[in-house]
Specification:
The chain has 283 residues and is of the alpha/beta class. The protein is 25% helix and 15% strand. The chain folds into 2 domains: 100 residues, Rossmann fold; 171 residues, Rossmann fold (3-Layer(aba) Sandwich), CATH 3.40.50.720. α6 links the parallel β9 and β10. It is globular.
């Protein structure tokens, strides 16, 4: 039995032994992952997210895990650009004034002529860079290896004080946890913008809240730490920040593209060809 779960449905326990292919629901949470080891005849898990650090511990030995690299490029890069423009041009202030019925003109920085650092240069990072070129920006990309024209992340600190915008789209690892810490936040130039469309824990939340309260920087966050961000958390009331509830990949473009990718996986299984984006179980 193949089970494609894209609508939050969890199979009954009586079905577990029949499942050979499982696709947990997108952003379905731990409940859709912790049942994986109970599927005794499971052969393949297709995870409809690009990041897979949260599912790895649930994948039994010998089970093939595939992620959705490439699936979220369009939507996530679109949101990254949207948050960047909104943060640079002062949308948070505009909305606050709109709610108060205040007409107040202020001049804000443009995205044009900004020096943008894109930290993470995989599928989505490259897409973001290609979109930024339309806005007449200077872009410096950073990756772990420094390949494809990017700088190595080890060089980031040398560029940091020059950057007008920092866009984070790197995986969460031990090395990237709290990559943007209090020291790096303080070294951001006055008026700079931080955009996080990666994982919340890549930014030290307490340090970010403190820096936002200085009024020096702005931020646009699609991810937070903790997540979901609880009611009353200081980040909600911090100035100059726009928060979206982790919707980078979750747009109207998701369902048709996700289904097309799963259909391709089924076809490859049938034709005994290598699966797309195979993470574990590689021969």
């Amino acid at each position: 039995m193949n089970h494609l779960d894209t609508d939050g449905f969890i199979p009954a326990q009586s079905q577990f032994d029949d499942i050979e292919f499982y696709c947990p629901s997108y952003m379905g949470g731990i409940k859709t992952l912790e049942i994986i080891p109970k599927m005794k005849n499971l052969k393949t898990v297709h995870y409809s997210q690009a990041g897979y650090e949260d599912i790895l511990k649930h994948i039994p030995e010998g089970v093939v895990l595939c992620n959705a690299s490439g699936l979220h490029d369009v939507s996530t890069s679109e949101l990254a650009i949207g948050l960047t423009i909104a943060s640079r041009r002062g949308f948070a202030e505009f909305m606050d004034n709109q709610n108060k019925g205040i007409w107040h003109r202020t001049r804000k920085p443009a995205l044009a002529d900004s020096h943008v650092g894109v930290v993470g240069y995989g599928h989505i990072g490259k897409r973001i860079v290609s979109l930024l070129e339309i806005f007449e920006t200077k872009v410096t990309a950073f990756s772990r290896t420094g390949s494809d024209g990017a700088r190595k992340i080890s060089e980031f600190d040398a560029f940091l004080p020059q950057l007008d915008v920092i866009i984070l789209i790197l995986p969460l690892t031990k090395e990237s946890h709290n990559f943007i810490n209090a020291d790096r936040l303080k070294r951001m130039k006055d008026g700079a913008t931080l955009i996080n469309v990666a994982r919340g824990a890549i930014v030290d939340t307490d340090a970010l809240v403190a820096e936002l309260h200085t009024g020096r920087i702005t931020a646009g966050l699609d991810v937070t730490d903790p997540e979901p961000l609880p009611a009353g958390h200081p980040l909600w009331s911090a100035p100059n920040v726009i928060i979206s509830p982790h919707v980078g990949g979750d747009s109207g473009a998701f369902d048709p593209r996700a289904r097309k990718m799963v259909e391709e996986q089924f076809l490859r299984l049938y034709e005994k060809r290598p699966l797309l984006n195979q993470i574990t179980g590689l021969n």
